[in-house]
Amino acid sequence: MLDERRQFRVLFRVFLSRAVELDLLSPGGNVENLAIQFVALLLAFNFVVAYVMTPRYFTSPLPSAILRVNAWSDEEFLVSTTISVVGMFLILAWDNLLPDIRDALVLTVLPVRARTIAFSKITAIACAVGIVVVCVNFFTSFCYAGIVGGDAGTFGVVRAFVSYWMTMAFAAVFMVAVLVGVPGVTAQFLSYRSFLRVSGVLELMAFFAILGVYFLKPQLATVAALHAPQNASWLNLLPSYWFLGLFERLNGSGDPVLVRLGSRAIEAMICALLAGGTVLALVYLRTVKKIIEAPDISRAAHLPLGSRILIALATRIFRRPIDRAILLFISRTLARSHRHRLLLAIYGGIGLAVALAYAESLVRGEWEQKWYQPNALLLVASFVILFFVVPGMRIVFTFPHALRSNWIFRVTAVQHPSRYFFAVRKALYCLAVFPILAISGMLLFALWPTRPVLLHMGVFLLVAILAAEKLLHGFRKIPFTCSYLPGKANLNFKLGAYAAVILFAAHWGGFLEFWAIEKPSRYVALVAILLTLAVWARFRFHEFATAPQTPIQFEERPPADVYALDLRLDGELLGGDVYVEPKSRGGLRWGTPGR
Amino acid sequence: MLELRNVSKIYSGIPVVNRASFLAAAGEVTGYLGPNGSGKSTTLKMITGLIEPSEGEILFHGTPIQRDRIHYRQIFGYVPEEPQVYPHLSGAEYLQMICELRGFTDREAKEKVQNLLRLFALHEDRDVALSSYSKGMRQKVLLAAALLHNPDLILLDEPFSGLDVGSVLILRDLIKNLAARGKTILLSSHEMDTIERVCSRVIILSKGRVAADDSIAQLRTLMALASLEQVFSQLALEQDTESVSREIIEVIES
To answer: Residue B92 burial (CB < 10 Å; 0-12/13-18/19+)?
Structure first.
């Protein structure tokens, strides 16, 4: 006799522990640590928001009716943040939203009903999303209940509190239904293998869409903007305003625009829920079968065009086989590893969003400078992208991929480690620095006269060199091949602190450069300083890379309190080894390490 | 010639390999047998340099392998027990990368990879990700990767695992032919039949210690047993296989 409830409980636990990609954890890391870090981060964020945003309402001399209207923009911000955080969480859990090959092959051979699997998975996702929603609204829910319902006494506060949570819950349900529905519908029309490929693209698109909407949506939560006819289409498109309408409606607001937006929120949520539910049912009825029936191996008629272009470029650009090997290994891992792609997208996406916010503020006329004339804002925007993408890629390099396969790099390490370090540096330039320089250059050349762009590109190149060389100094690894300390989550929680420093540096760097470009003497001085620093950084990197005691690192180990006299560490190269030099043609010859 | 002198590997005070000493001669296939957990794979990893012995010395052609590890890495090929490969690379990409890491020119690498993929019957699937390969196909990729630089010392840890019958027969002949060309081959396997057909000598490991080191014929004669399987059971197995199987059935049926 099958005990479905027990099966449900067991599967619920499994799916809940897998709610976020376990790939984000290092081998040996534990999911509880990651969950606690995640919860603490969201709670801390919400506490800061509550601390910064709410005191002014309690100290303001303005009448409460005006304060309530003033609170619309904050409420919209909170709804928008909830939707975005839920969206980001679902993107982290992307591969676990629908049944995958593990579920299909492991669970379908067990005496477990499809509905038990489906319900336990849906409940696990709902539970995880619920935790996220609670954490991201915990403190603000109390504050805004007081602000919105304070006038009506206890009943008003309770009503506002309940409305707040209903609104956030509905917004989260809407987001879940949309983000489950999109890959679910795609899975109906594609083979499982094609779906896996498309799914990665959809995930990135969803990520950039969420980020783009969050940072770039117009601010319309004022009486004038909400009632302006030209904003009607924006309001119809942006879910955060629908749910603002719902919140106000639940609190008794009679504003016709908010009432209409509230109705739209309910309609949208019901539609998304119905569509998402139907898609999920179809997924469990059809897709699981499709996964099982998918051929084990699907032969590719020829190499994809992207791969062929990459190989051709690598062969033409790099003379040394090791440079080609490292560049191709890095680019293929970034292109094909879901986890690395996502982490890079997070860094790049944040940089892009901030850069777009600068550009948008310029276009909207918030600054005296004009976008079509040389200005500091676009210089700042280009620095922001550089400062997020290059360090982002360097950080992504440290996260391993298929760690147990790194033995092949150990047994084939027949060249001096400096060769590997120089190859990694070339790869960073090819994959991050030069593309950013090229794209920034093209955009600025299209907007501005040639001279200021050329002057900026000179400074930009030196800053990029300085950043790349500094970031790689001390990096003794082949990207993706070194272990990561157990228990350390791969989501870099130091990002907040770094981001503040980066934004500060980019902002003032951009304005400093603009100031320098205005006079040749200042520009020459700035370039001279940057050139000196860039040369110094390259020299330091070269010194580090060619040092005799610099082995390639494959193990990230904490220093032991008592260290055994194991004079040679397992599998590592120590100084004094004689390395070989690859010839341009033919086999290998003996040589000394060098550049 | 590969020589191990009193080699031990100790993890947390427990010797996984305990003072193992043996010779593997050039031009010979030396079988390396032992039950699960007896230290076979650990020995092979020590011979590759992936892990360091806690005690003892490993010599190839009379030179300690750590003296010139870079040269040593150029002259050995290794097939690990587990087919650990980068799953996001295709078979061709993986082999091409290894060629480039070993310093082959682009032309040499391409030629070698294409030929090896064709001969290992992987050419049609050369551009398919290794994650889609079957266990046997991955094993073939590992074999190609271990041999592509024409090594003098070949270390094979369960190389027949997952291979189909045809591939097993080819690999057996390949191993014998490589030995005939003067290569030193150390073959670890659980397949007694293959070991009997391919190896001239066997080393039997039990609980990390070398329990026997002789030619198969000599071992059979000395122990008055008909097959290598019986010799192995006598020397390395502590359990009565019949009674264990009966107990398993009892547990299943309880």
So the answer is: buried
Most confident of A462-471, A581-590, B223-232: A462-471
Alpha carbon distances (Å) from A23 to A127, A171, A437:
20, 28, 32
Q: What is residue A295's predicted lDDT score, i.e. its pLDDT?
A: 67
- Residue B85: which of A405, A412, A568 has the nearest Cβ? A405
**Separation between Cα atoms, residue A378 and residue A448, nearest integer Å:** 11
Residue A337 lies in a domain: yes
Cα→Cα distances A595→A417, A423, A574, Å: 11, 11, 18
Residues of A in contact with B97 (CB under 8 A): 325, 328-329
| A to B CB pairs, distance under 8 Å | 129
Q: Do A577 and B68 touch (CB under 8 A)?
A: yes
How is A355-422 classified by DSSP, letter by letter? Answer: HHHHHHHHHTT-SSS-TTS--HHHHHHHHHHHHHHHHHHHHHHTS-SSGGGGHHHHHT--S-HHHHHH
Mean pLDDT across B96-115: 92
Average pLDDT score over residue span A346-357:
87
Is A568 close to B66, i.e. CB distance below 8 A?
yes
* Residue A161, in any domain of the structure: yes
Asked if A198 and A118 sit in the same domain, the reply is yes
Q: Which domains does chain B have, with CATH numbers?
A: 2-85+153-253 (3.40.50.300)
Does any domain span residue A563?
A: no
Distance, in Å, from the CA atom of A461 to the CA atom of A453, rounded to the nearest integer, reads: 12
How are beta strands B14-24 and B63-64 bridged, if at all?
A: unpaired
Q: Is A287 exposed, middle or buried (0-12, 13-18, 19+ CB in 10 A)?
A: buried
Position A491 scores a pLDDT of 52
Whether residue A262 is predicted with pLDDT greater than 90 in this model: the reply is yes
Q: Is A329 helix (H, G, I), strand (E, B) or coil?
A: helix
Same domain for A91 and A31:
yes
Name the domain count of chain A. Answer: 2
Q: How far is B239 from chain A (nearest CA, A)?
A: 33
A467 in a structural domain: no
pLDDT band at A300 (very low <50, low <70, confident <90, very high): low
Compute φ and ψ for A30, nearest 5 degrees.
-115, 145
Q: For residue A109, what are the domain limits?
A: 4-293
Residues ≥6 apart with Cβ < 8 Å to B240: none
Question: Looking at residue B243, what is its pLDDT?
Answer: 86
Which residue type is seen at A203? E
> Cβ separation of B49 and A571 shorter than 8 Å?
yes
Count, in order, helices (H) and strands (E) of chain B: 10, 10
b/e code A46-65 from CB counts within 10 Å (16+ = b):
beebbeebbeebeeeeeeee
Which residue among B86, B100, B109 places its CB closest to the CB of A405?
A: B86
Q: What is the pTM of this model?
A: 0.80
Task: Provide ipTM, 2 decimals.
Answer: 0.83
